[in-house]
Amino acid sequence: MALLNNVIYLENALSTNTFLKISDYPDRTIVYTFDQKEGRGREDRKWLNFKDKNLALSLLFKPEENVKNYLWYIAVNSLALIKLLENYGIKSSYIKWPNDIYIDDKKISGILAESTWKGQKTDKLIIGIGVNVNSSLDDIKTIDKKATSLFIETNKVVNIKLFTEEYIGLLNKYYGILLLEKNIDYIKEEWMNKSKIIGKKVCWVFNGNEIYGEASDIDEEGFLMLKTESGLLKVLSGDINLV
Ligand code: BT5
After folding, report:
1. Is 146's C-beta closer than 6 angstroms to any atom of ligand 1?
2. What is the SS3 string spanning the chain?
3. Residue of the nearest CA to atom 3 in ligand 1?
4. So what's the pLDDT on residue 236?
5. Is the CB of 143 under 6 A from ligand 1?
6. What is the predicted pLDDT for the residue at 2?
7. Which of 23, 47, 164 to mutate to test the pocket of ligand 1 (most atoms within 8 A of CB)?
8. pLDDT tens across 74-103, in order?
């Protein structure tokens, strides 16, 4: 039986992450829609969706043990998408640590990981991903950052339903490696391979601060290590930009 076998399609939703947060579904439920009306990004930013052209998909986990951080989950979602994009002929997509997928300097996908707690215990872990599948150049122009879609990159309209089924298939594969085989080494290696920032000069932006350094490694917990003039720093949040 597939690991993620409870899959719910919604005609529309305000936000698939919020939907899972406020409702009561079992561990390993997937919810998706092609019409998300109020998609959320990190730090109260907005995630734009273009009706019937974009995928908004969220996964619910109800872990038995507290999850120290969500980075391996974000990694799995990213690796599954990169593999799928490869299957559609795009060989150059990469991870902008920790939660974005880019092609060149354009964002095609973003991930929002959230949790809810019952006392000291993680109750829900929700990993939501938005993917620009068939959005047009005109759609993308309304986004305040450089962005792209699978359609723009390949000039072919994609069957979004099939794309989603294939993505769920790959999520099953990669979550199997993380949660059943518990092979974090494999996920870490693949994640580093697809990250393109290891060994490069980057700028870490957080709370209005900017720190420059070299992205040197991803540690055992999935955090990025930044080599700076004042020593090695562990990047816990914020954004990393190539310089
Ligand atoms: C993210 O935040 O990139 C996380 C996006 C997560 C969306 C999914 S959809 C399913 C689930 N349900 C939700 O409500 N959310 C999740 P962040 O790194 O903060 O980036 C947000 C920024 O990306 C915005 O401020 C824009 O600059 C840009 N952006 C917004 N919509 C975009 C789009 N469709 N394509 C590319 N970039 C976009």
Report:
1. no
2. CCCCCEEEEECCECCHHHHHHHCCCCCCEEEEECCECCEECHHHCEECCCCCCEEEEEEEECCCCCCCCCHHHHHHHHHHHHHHHHHCCCCCEEEECCCEEEECCEEEEEEEEEEEEECCEEEEEEEEEEEECCCCHHHHHCCCCCECCHHHHHCCCCCHHHHHHHHHHHHHHHHHHHHHCCCHHHHHHHHHHCCCCCCCEEEEEECCEEEEEEEEEECCCCCEEEEECCEEEEECCCEEEEC
3. 110
4. 84
5. yes
6. 84
7. 47
8. 999 999 999 999 999 999 999 988 899 999
Pick the atom of ligand 1 nearest to 49's CA.
Answer: 34
Listed as own residue / partner, the contacts of 106-110 with beta carbons closer than 8 Å and 24 or more positions apart are 106/146, 106/147, 106/148, 107/145, 107/146, 107/147, 107/148, 108/132, 108/147, 108/148, 108/149, 108/150, 108/153, 109/78, 109/81, 110/41, 110/47
Q: Over the chain, what is the mean pLDDT? A: 95
For ligand 1, the distance from its centroid to the CA atom of residue 47, given in whole angstroms, is: 3
The confidence score (pLDDT) of residue 131 equals 98
Ligand 1 pocket, residue 96 CB under 6 Å: no
With bands split at pLDDT 50, 70 and 90, how would you rate the model's confidence at 242? confident
What's the chain's length in residues? 243
Res. 65 pLDDT band, cuts 50 70 90: confident
Q: Is the pLDDT of residue 69 over 80?
A: no
Indicate which atom in ligand 1 lies nearest the CA of residue 135: 34
Distance separating the N- and C-terminal Cα atoms of the chain:
45
